[in-house]
Write a structure and sequence with these properties.
- By secondary structure, this protein is mainly alpha-helical.
- It folds into 4 domains: about 45 residues, no CATH class; about 35 residues, no CATH class; about 40 residues, no CATH class; about 100 residues, HIV Type 1 Reverse Transcriptase, subunit A, domain 1 (HIV Type 1 Reverse Transcriptase, Chain A, domain 1, Roll), CATH 3.10.10.
- Helices cover about 30% and strands about 5% of the residues.
- The strands form 2 sheets. It has a two-stranded parallel sheet with strand order 1-4.
- The longest helix is centred in the middle third of the chain and has 16 residues.
- The two termini are about 30 Å apart.
- This is Reverse transcriptase domain-containing protein.
- It holds the Pfam family Integrase_H2C2.
Amino acid sequence: MSVAHDTITGDQLGIRKTREKIMSDFYWPGIYKDVARYCRSCDICQRTLRNETSSRVPDVSSQTRDDPDVPLCEAVIKDYDYEADRGHVQDNLTGDEQGSEDLPEIGTWGQKEDAADVKFGGALTYDQNRVLQMLVQKFSEIFSDRPGDTNLAEHRIDLTSDIPVRQTPYPVPFALKSSLNKELQQMEDLGIIRKSDSLYASHVVVVKKKDGSNRICIDFRRLNKITVTDPQPVPSPAESFLGMSEDKYFSKLDLTKGYHQIRVRPSDIHKTAFVTIGQH
């Protein structure tokens, strides 16, 4: 991947062209994800801002605009083809029954799920379903899409070098600055991050999620290179399934932002410092 993307012949191409160049001679399972991950973490590509242009809304036809029974705002909405331009299902934005009431904005960290959203298997009997509902109700406070905080473990960061890892921040596209600052402020309000004067400083990378929202990631690759790794092996999936061979009931729990639910050892917190434009 480095030869196909980073060298002179690679020319820092995008994900699709880099993948096509590799697949002309090589293939392995997961190549699509590997190439996408490699290109998105490229230092040079992160420093290069894309020139994004917005599509212009076509002018309203004179026939529609001159109709006295059609408000001008409604004429613009009807004339603009949202389906062709954005690939979205066109909503009925002009219905009179919708009114003009402004909807409250829900932040990224605002709670939108609770115990009432827990789903139970359809094969359970009435008594089994009742027992599970009572159990969920008893611990209802843990069923939330706001990250919690465990006291069962701490994350240690033991390093092989005492020289601080210090990097200059990546440039942030102007269109993402407001979203980035808002997300950082919400994380600070929740106690996940705080202002720092640490000598360590890692990059911030903004990653677009499938639902269209942004995820803030920290590029800890340089810190990981000097981190003492844990030699304890991770249990294989086969061993885990073998240990559940005699069990009858299975539950799947997805931790909300589980990465943020494990505290860092106080003496190591300064090593996780990150930097972005105007903030540290």
